[in-house]
Amino acid sequence: KEDFVGHQVLRISVADEAQVQKVTELEDLEHLQLDFWRGPAQPGSPVDVRVPFPSLQAVKVFLEAHGIKYTIMIEDVQSLLDEEEEQMFAFQARAAS
Amino acid sequence: TDTFNYATYHTLDEIYGFMDMLVAEHPNLVSKLQIGKTYEGRPIYVLKFSTGGNNRPAIWIDTGIHSREWVTQASGIWFAKKITQDYGQNPAFTAILDKMDIFLEIVTNPDGFAFTHSKNRLWRKTRSITAGSSCVGVDPNRNWDAGFGKAGASSNPCSETYHGKFANSETEVKSIVDFVKSHGNIKAFISIHSYSQLLLYPYGYTTDPAQDQAELDELAKSAVTALASLYGTKFKYGSIIKAIYRASGGTIDWTYNQGIKYSYTFELRDTGRYGFLLPASQIVPTAQETWLALLTIMDHTLKHPY
Predict the structure, then answer these.
(1) Are B183 and B192 in contact (CB under 8 A)?
(2) ipTM of model over 0.90
(3) pLDDT tens across B147-189, in order?
(4) How many interface pairs between A and B have CB atoms less than 8 angstroms apart?
(5) What does the pLDDT look like over A2-29, one tens digit per residue?
């Protein structure tokens, strides 16, 4: 099963067209393995992107270098998935008993 | 199905088992149709809710076309149960089902959904193999014959928005296309995604306004008002291209171009805390509020035959 330890979801705020363009450039860098949960659209519309741990540093440096603001929407994707799985199994265990 | 747990996420087998139970409990109201098979050979099921007549005007609702958006399939299960509970109890809903049929496809991307349980929880696309590429899958919401291949989708098989080699290349899409064309009397088509809290209508592949833009906008406003009345969840609404971004080959652009006027896409909760990893505790409230919006659209469709 795919593991997402250390993956973060960043919420990027694009202030103008130029910044939308910059974030769109990121989308084309396949080696970063970015997964856009909400793609780049228009200024003011948030962009949510899951960033694998190995790409985190590079992406954050890129955003900061271009003055593009971001927040961390999900600190660690795997911990959310673990919670979800626990909830499902707890239910299944109760249902079985 | 009274003891089925609607407040937790379920596997594909559990959902298919639920469907069979519901049909067995309501043989005169619910039937299960198989509209095709997936790329990996799984059956594609649609629940039909009908109180009689032959080929009545119908409403189509689908969930789970993007497999990782689990709150949508979970909401679809809740809708199915709600329909059987409210028919004969809720006068407004009974009036709808006395005159129209409802088709509900709960797991619209079975291969992708099974994969989210077995290998990769964040899988979004189908699981078809693309010749010449090591990447798998097509975005089933970019594969429809409406602006197919234009800006707003990717031609890169490794992209999450890869449109596929040709329109309807995905059997999960082609099965619906064939069903819609053979039925020929669908009057509303509602495709449910998550997240972002949006109610969208055509178009996504062009800035040209839909012919019925004013009516679709007005109805969307009423629907999101009804939705917000339960828990205060705020939805924005508008055309796909205006409300979010350019997206080509999309489901409801194709259904609208088929003449199905009331074509809508929902993007359910939330706005950016969990994204589509919405905790199971929010399944039932999400389904309840969405149902109020669906009722608004279905009621309008009933009262505005065309």
Answers:
(1) no
(2) yes
(3) 999 999 999 999 999 999 999 999 999 999 999 999 999 999 9
(4) 63
(5) 999 999 999 999 999 999 999 999 988 8
Q: How far is CA B278 from CA A38, A71, B224, B250, B272, in A?
A: 15, 19, 20, 24, 10
Instruction: Tell me if B105 sits within 8 A of B251, measured CB to CB.
Output: no
Residue type at B131 in one-letter notation: A
Q: What does the block give as tokens for A16?
A: 């103008």
Chain B, nearest residue to A36 by Cα: B160
Beta strand B30-37 with B58-63 is: unpaired
Which site among B122, B236, B239, B276 would you substitute to test the A interface, given the most A Cβ atoms closer than 10 Å to its Cβ?
B122
Element (H, E) at A69: strand A69-74
Sheet strands (E) in B195-259 = 198-201, 236-239
| Cα nearest neighbour of A90 on chain B | B8
> Rounded to whole angstroms, how far apart are CA atoms B263 and B70?
22
Q: At what angle do helices B70-86 and B12-25 cross, to 10 degrees?
A: 10
Q: Is B263 helix (H, G, I), strand (E, B) or coil?
A: strand
Q: What is the DSSP string of B76-111?
A: HHHHHHHHHHHTTTSHHHHHHHHH-EEEEES-S-HH
Angle subtended by helix axes B283-303 and B91-99, to nearest 10: 60
A36, A95, A81, A38: which is closest to B280 by C-alpha?
A81
For B209, counting Cβ atoms within 10 Å of its Cβ (0-12 exposed, 13-18 middle, 19+ buried), the class is middle
Please say whether the beta carbons of B220 and B184 come within 8 A.
no
